[in-house]
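U., I forgot to send this yesterday:
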Amino acid sequence: MAGPPVAVVNACTRDGEGGSPTAIVIDDATLTDDDRHAIARGSGTSHTAFIDTRTADAPMVRFFTSAGELTNCGHGTIAAQAVLLHRSGAAEQHGSLRTAGRTFATTAIRRHNGIEVWFDQGAIVLADHAEAATGGIIAALDLRRADIAAGVRVASPGTPRLLVPVRDNLTLLSLQPDFERLATECRRLGYLGCFAYALSPDARTAAARMFAPAIGVNEDIANANSAGCLAAHLLDTSGDGQIEIHQGDTLRRPSAIFADATRTGSSIVARIGGMVDPGPSIDLSAPEP
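Result:
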């Protein structure tokens, strides 16, 4: 029996190019998790989002990679909301998405060069003094201590990952991690992966690479949740939580993610945005009646 239609959209494009190909499936209640995992393995993309539209006010989205299910996925959230706007036929949509028990406020707007999507990431927890625990990870990343520009931090919007500042773009682009060792170290310490980044001199933009072999993604073209984590870290350390992140250059898929962190009481929360190029395959999912 043929499976459900799969649409592939490019999430977090940069200047109308690149972006992370993300598979989208309008979920079928008859699908099992084994079915979803099989679809994700066969999609040809790093991540697949399954959208349950039966609750129109806050559709449920689940994310799978070749290694299994994720609790959330930032660029997958952006891609899913773009597809929902396309299916609605509207020019603009404000609503919510649910993922793994959390509800995110979302906004999607049609632009001349694609669909602009923003979502509220929620609270981000930052932990200091992580460097002492990251010796094995630093080596697995193909880094030396002298390559690290500042302190390594743990950041978690629900799932912890390491933020690793490197001294310059050349160091970042030349990294050749030992993915097997990195996966082992991340699993041992409970980290999703490592977000290595190099800030521009004015700290308004950053180049970044996300390595997450522990979840079956050696390198991510775009990792929106980590962009929000970096924005939270910058707000905490410099007072400015606005940043534009460029990823995907080493994979020849340039991507851009926008993040804006603010303080709410004792917490830091972030809002994340990106452009989506729907492409012709989005029409594999029939519009809502």
